[in-house]
Specification:
Shape: globular
Number of helices: 11
Domain ABC transporter: 3-233
Family: Belongs to the ABC transporter superfamily.
Largest sheet: 6 strands, mixed
CATH superfamily of the largest domain: P-loop containing nucleotide triphosphate hydrolases
Protein name: ABC transporter ATP-binding protein
Keywords: Amino-acid transport, ATP-binding, Nucleotide-binding, Transport
Helix content: 25-40%
InterPro entries: AAA+_ATPase, ABC_branched_ATPase_LivF/BraG, ABC_transporter-like_ATP-bd, ABC_transporter-like_CS, BCAA_Transport_ATP-bd_LivF, P-loop_NTPase
Length: 272
């Protein structure tokens, strides 16, 4: 097993965001986490990548306990992340953004750069353009490409389709599948549950910081409860469930202040 998450608990101040989440991701899989706003999906990814500390539980990656490992060492160990909101450097060029993804690595990264440009020809065409002047879809490609520059064994993707037109959504999901075919394991958080379940091998359903279902992705596509809650339309329709009745976290620009106040419950709760 490449990634094992065992009974992890995470708190924002005194408020529990994750309440014993367990999940596994095997080498070569695409695994998706689905759930309503505030369910704990983004917090799970941030905890795996080392951006949120564990209150309890254990994370094992590639046979090594990384529960207390600093985030930058997790990147070197093989965990890459493309965050929600993309988080590119707007004043840097496309190529400079990509090279930042390999910042912690030593040696020649020309092979990885070539592979990213093969995956995203649009980035190759615009490698000298400032990242902040690109479209939303191009910025999403840049965020994924930057994460791939670290040559990850597992790629954590947080809402890669958010804010994109349907045609671009299809393109992004096709690229995710191609990344997986090239040997990179993927753990995907995605509000578009229908699309996510169509490309994933397995899936976990989160509600209020707990896993309530796990199965092969194609089985969950046919699960009546999952279809009623998440596949009958936009996941926003599930916001009336208790899972959405959480204290929302401000948008990314306010994340640092919110973390200092320890008043938020979960990053997922800030999604519209």
């Amino acid at each position: 097993m490449l990634l094992e998450i065992s009974d992890i608990h995470v708190h924002y101040g005194k408020i529990a965001a994750l309440k014993g989440v367990s999940a596994e991701v095997d080498q070569g899989e695409i695994v998706t986490l689905i759930g309503a706003n505030g369910a704990g999906k983004t917090t799970t990814l941030k905890t795996i990548s080392g951006l949120r500390p564990l209150s309890a539980g254990r994370i094992v990656f590639d046979g090594q306990d990384i529960s207390r490992m600093p985030g930058h060492k997790r990147v070197l160990a093989g965990i890459g992340q493309a965050p929600e909101g993309r988080g590119i450097f707007p004043g840097m060029t496309v190529e400079e953004n990509l090279l930042m993804g390999a910042y912690a690595r030593k040696g020649d990264v020309s092979k990885e750069l070539k592979e990213v440009y093969e995956l995203f020809p649009r980035l190759a065409e615009r490698k000298g353009q400032a990242g902040g002047t690109m479209s939303g879809g191009e910025q999403q490609m840049l965020a994924i490409g930057r994460a791939m520059m670290a040559d990850p064994k597992v790629l954590l993707l947080d809402e890669p389709s958010m804010g994109l037109a349907p045609l671009l959504v299809q393109q992004i999901f096709s690229i995710i599948q191609e990344i997986n075919r090239r040997g990179c394991t993927v753990l995907l958080v995605e509000q578009n549950a229908q699309q996510a379940l169509q490309i994933a091998h397995r899936a976990y359903v989160l509600e209020t910081g707990r896993v309530v279902k796990s199965a092969a992705a194609h089985d969950l596509l046919d699960d009546p409860e999952v279809r009623a809650a998440y596949l009958g339309g936009d996941l926003g329709e599930a916001a009336a469930s208790p899972a959405a009745e959480r204290v929302p976290e401000p948008r990314s620009g306010e994340d640092a202040a919110a973390a200092a106040d320890d008043t938020v419950v979960d990053d997922d709760a800030r999604k519209d």
